[in-house]
Amino acid sequence: MIEKNVNLYFIYKMMKLISIILLLLSNFIYAQKIIENDSLKKYSFLDLKIKFDNYYFRDKTYESKLIAKYFLQKAKNERNESQIADGYMLMQFDATFTDALKYIDSVNIYSTKLDKKVYPAKIYLLRGNLYFKFDYFKQALDSYILALRYAKENKNERQIAFTELNIAFLQNYIGKYKEAAKTFRYYLYNGKALYNIERSQIQQNLVDAYIALNKLDSAKVLIKEGIQSSLKNKDKYNYYKYLCLQSYYNLKTENYKKAVSDLLLCKKYFSTDPSDLNINYTLFVLGKTYIGLHEKDKTVQNFIEIDSNIQKTNNTFPELREVYTYLIDYYKEKNDKEKQLYYIDRFLKVDQKLDEQFRYLSVELPKKYDTPNLLQEKEDLINDLKNRKKNLYISISILLLILLLILYLYYKAKKTAKEHQKIAQELIHNIENKNSKSSDIKKELIESKISEQTEAEGENKATKAVPEDVIQALIKELEDFENKEDFLKNGITLASLAKNIKTNTAYLSEIINTYKEKNFTTYLNDLRIDYVLRRLVKDKKFRSYKLTAIAEELGYNNVQAFSTAFKKKTGTTPSIYIKEIEKTTTH
């Protein structure tokens, strides 16, 4: 039976916190001071809201009321409609039900010109919290459903979170702990729009639900975290709330003596304010613990205190049935008919109210909240599946394109390799058969690809600026350069060659361009590549060299320059050419 009771004691506190958070733009709490010593005039509206939160959340009702009144008067004096709305909101927190409802109606009037993303969902949230506080659960649920609708329309994540948390409290009330725990767990770990102080309250409710569901290990972990955090932050109020939860845990695990020890401390702390529902929580768990210790008189003492508090506040909870049936049975055993009759009367009044609430919530919660949520979840799943299928088709298409590209590149590479092999084989064949005496092997061997620039005589090609005797001399020098294989030397340039043969670069460049039909760089590369083509065929040892060593022997500074020049002239690569030579020699 205790599982139905524990959750409700935290709900009222959470209602207070959520209502205040709707006002606050910041979560920082000033150090508490006695309000009579404060000069409220020096505070801004935001500062006043923070101070209100500081007092109200710690049940300093007198101080929080003074701040609320001053806040509202300040807003009216300044004719600030936004702050007037907030002032009425502050006023409703500790007011009677009738007055609080009037204050919320005033908020509604002033909110018509305010941020539509916040209103009217904020109004329905406030009404829902007020109805919940005074046990009007039917009206509370209806208000929360409307608040949720407007919050979703405006995509206000904080209001959506608060509304769904409030509905989770109602689920707890009718024993739907699993559904409530799901909501608490989600917002504890995924509530990006929530502040740390809000998550602390959610964590306490999740612990409560876990214990009700007998998920004791999970509850124990969160209780330990909560106690450590409250001690670290010197937060007495939350420390004792977690101590109460730990006592509930100890009750479930039958560690009665430890539970009693802690609960007596909690009772002393919370008894200063009978309106604080944590005192009823403490008294109920303490009474249940004494039942475990077979101390009936102490159980009765605590249950009587609960009845006294209920008559003062009129706040009921489902486990009151257990409280009153225990008292009825106790006085029946004592043969005290007067008290037995009294508690029967109390039971009937409370039971009628609880029964009405339970019946309405049991029917309307699934209809107005659970079913729409399931339909939305179904729609989300359908959309998710559609998106997954779409993404799957896109992924398959991309994979097919990649596969086709790979196949294309593979066949292209194979084709290129075959072409390179064919070129290499032709080069080898022509060199072995000595079909060409030309220094430009590729031109002679591969279908004479280089066309003649002109059919005129070489003498007429030369620039008139170069004397005839110089032309003949330079042609002779170039022949010597080729025959002596000086082109294999590293670092040869047009300037260095011109210097060696005692001419200028202009004459030399002109002769090479005219008679060799290429520029100096191409001329030099062609000589080197023609040389390496012949030597690789003839010299087996030379073929065993690494390409780096071959490049150095040819006068290149690096293997990349050699490979580029080789492929440009022959159409194949040095590696393929060498492999084809090896195949030829092995056969």
From TrEMBL:
Query: Coiled-coil ranges per the record?
Result: 375-437
Give TM regions: 392-411
Q: Where are the TPR repeats?
A: 121-154
- Kindly give the InterPro entries that the UniProt entry links to this protein: Homeodomain-like_sf, HTH_AraC, TPR-like_helical_dom_sf, TPR_rpt
List the molecular function annotations (GO) for this entry. DNA-binding transcription factor activity; sequence-specific DNA binding
SUPFAM superfamilies, from UniProt?
A: Homeodomain-like, TPR-like
Q: Which residues form the HTH araC/xylS-type domain?
A: 472-580
Concerning SMART domains, the annotation shows:
HTH_ARAC
User: Sorted alphabetically, which keywords does the UniProt record give?
Assistant: Coiled coil, DNA-binding, Membrane, TPR repeat, Transcription, Transcription regulation, Transmembrane, Transmembrane helix
State what protein this is by name. Answer: HTH araC/xylS-type domain-containing protein
Q: What is the lineage of its organism?
A: Bacteria, Pseudomonadati, Bacteroidota, Flavobacteriia, Flavobacteriales
